[in-house]
Design a protein that fits this description.
Layout (H helix, E strand, L loop, with lengths): L12 E7 L3 H13 L5 E4 L8 H4 L11 H4 L15 H14 L6 E2 L2 E9 L4 E8 L7 E12 L23 E3 L14 E5 L3 H11 L4 E6 L5 E4 L4 H9 L2 H25 L1 H16 L2 H7 L12 E4 L2 H7 L3 E5 L2 E5 L2 E4 L4 E3 L2 E4 L13 E3 L2 E2 L7 E2 L3 E2 L5 E3 L8 H21 L2 E6 L8 E2 L6 H4 L7 E2 L11 H9 L3 H4 E5 L2
Parallel strand pairs: 1-2, 1-6, 2-3, 4-17, 6-21, 7-16, 8-9, 8-16, 9-12, 10-11
Antiparallel strand pairs: 4-5, 5-6, 13-14, 14-15, 17-18, 19-20, 22-25, 23-24
């Protein structure tokens, strides 16, 4: 079998191709420019704008669920006041970062990756892309690269998770999914039901309550929700007395330490964590029965990702009577709204199905090696970035218990370290390979439904370092500096 692309001329050759111009892709490009200067690269972005997730999601109140001092880049301090920032501010921050560092000159917009195939003979990736397409005039071509880095995340941008609710066709109102929010949707003075209790739902409810007649958050079971300050007062004080970069380092360090400490507290002492979270919510709502019914999950904190609400906005909205939380199951949609198993009917003009996202491994890219598809579920991830069985390839996977960007930046730096190692030693290929058999563990160890529905399609993590993805930034940054590339990578020299 002749490997695809081994002898076929491509339209262009690059040293590195980065897939995705979101928060991760722009950070990867910055690290590549500064740590591997002189290498040619391109950032391929399927959408027509920078921002990735933050360009896609346009629902009311969309915001980060991690503080911007750690979700933002370490090399470009976050200077705005909000700790949990709105989507427009985050998108603008990414755009400005790309422009300030000249990264925008390397981005190919409206360029979708259709296929990637590694050739052992030429030691190159052939990347098949489709350019344009918005006006129906898409062009398909190929390019080659020495190294491929997927920064497209693990969400399916083309479809969200939408359960098949009975009776939907009989509903007289409007049903929308947050991932595809209609620009012309007017919910002013209307009755809204938001189905779900995750990060999207708890964001939508207080935001829509500002204009809607009434908003109901309908959940099958409660989710752990914690109030956090909308502004970081310590950060504000530090920025007044210190230079921007020095203040940013201190704020970032403080927030990293707090997030790691709170996560470890929840995992090691779940009963005390439950008592703390329910106590804080009771103090705000002043209703023990409501907290017990609607805000006390069966699972322990951080078995699933903890939802953060700035300045207790969800709880305040509920306390004011502008919104309510209902814990029940859907029996069927009816013309006037939703009938629950209890028999109650929730009247609605608009129903928002905040029922979750779909996971999609590496933006839907299935690597091929010499024409054969790689079974990702049979592979292992090394240091959270490179994958067994796939040469010169890396993926960006963030933390589940902290800001995505913290781990993303470690992955960028590791990729640069591998590239420089290959250059110093005249190597053409590098692929991670364990020296002993590994016990399989799921890549993301969360019990959330959106993870459990799709995680079997992803590579595995192992049971020991450097194949184990620890949810601890401090340990990861220390071990990353000591990464033994000679031991863990199987390499071949340039011809």
């Amino acid at each position: 079998m002749k490997p695809h692309g081994a002898d076929e001329p491509a339209d262009e050759h690059l040293d590195v191709v980065i897939v995705g111009a979101g928060l991760s892709g722009i950070g990867a490009a910055y690290r590549l420019q500064t740590r591997c200067p002189g290498r040619s690269y391109a950032v391929l972005e399927a959408r027509a704008a920078v921002g990735g997730t933050w360009d896609l999601f346009r629902y009311p109140g969309v915001r980060s669920d991690s503080d911007m001092y750690t979700l933002g880049y370490v090399f470009r301090p976050w200077r705005e006041g909000k700790s949990l920032a709105d989507g427009d501010s985050i998108r603008r921050y990414i755009e400005q970062t790309a422009h300030e560092h000249g990264i925008d000159q390397h981005i190919r917009f409206s360029t979708k990756v259709l296929a990637v195939d590694w050739s052992t003979i030429s030691a190159r990736w052939t990347v098949t892309i489709e350019e344009g397409g918005a006006d129906g005039c898409a062009t398909r071509r190929t390019l080659t690269c020495n190294f491929l880095y997927s920064c497209a995340g693990y969400y399916d941008y083309d479809s969200g998770h939408s359960p098949d609710f009975p009776g939907t066709d009989s509903f007289d109102g409007t049903v929308v999914h947050p991932q595809f929010w209609p620009e012309d949707l007017d919910y002013t003075g209307k009755r809204v039901v938001v189905i779900g209790s995750g990060a999207t739902a708890v964001t939508l409810v207080p935001a829509m309550a500002e204009q809607a007649e009434h908003v109901t958050m309908l959940q099958r079971s409660p989710t752990w929700i914690s109030s956090v300050p909308g502004r970081d007062r310590i950060a504000d004080r530090l920025r007044k007395v210190l230079p921007a970069r020095a203040a940013h380092r201190l704020i970032r360090g403080k927030n990293i330490a707090f997030s790691i400490g709170f996560y470890q507290f929840c995992r090691r002492q779940p009963q005390r964590a439950r008592k703390l979270l329910t106590g804080l919510t009771t103090r705000i709502l002043e209703d023990k029965e409501a907290v017990a019914e609607h805000f006390t999950p069966r699972y322990d904190p951080w078995d699933q990702r903890l939802c953060a609400v700035p300045d207790a906005d969800l709880f305040v909205t509920v306390k004011k009577g502008q919104a309510e939380v209902v814990t029940d199951h859907i029996d069927t949609f009816v013309p006037e709204g939703i009938r629950l198993r209890s028999g109650r009917v929730l009247d609605a003009d608009v129903v928002v199905t905040a029922t979750g996202l779909k996971l999609l491994a590496f933006g839907g890219i299935t690597p091929h090696v010499d024409g054969r598809p790689v079974r990702l579920s049979e592979q292992f991830v090394w240091r959270g970035a490179m994958i067994t069985g796939v040469p010169n390839f890396a993926v960006c996977i963030g933390y589940t218990n902290a800001s995505w960007t913290l781990r993303a930046d470690l992955s960028h730096r590791l990729v640069c370290k591998v590239l420089n190692h290959m250059d110093r030693h005249g190597l053409a290929t590098a692929v991670p390979e364990p020296d002993q058999p590994l016990a399989e563990r799921p890549l993301l160890e969360l019990t959330a439904g959106y993870v459990q529905r799709s995680i079997d399609a992803f590579p595995r993590q192992g049971d020991r370092s450097p194949w184990l993805m620890r949810q601890n930034y401090l340990l990861d940054i220390l071990s990353g500096m000591r990464a033994d590339l000679r031991r863990d990578l199987r390499v071949s020299p340039r011809p």
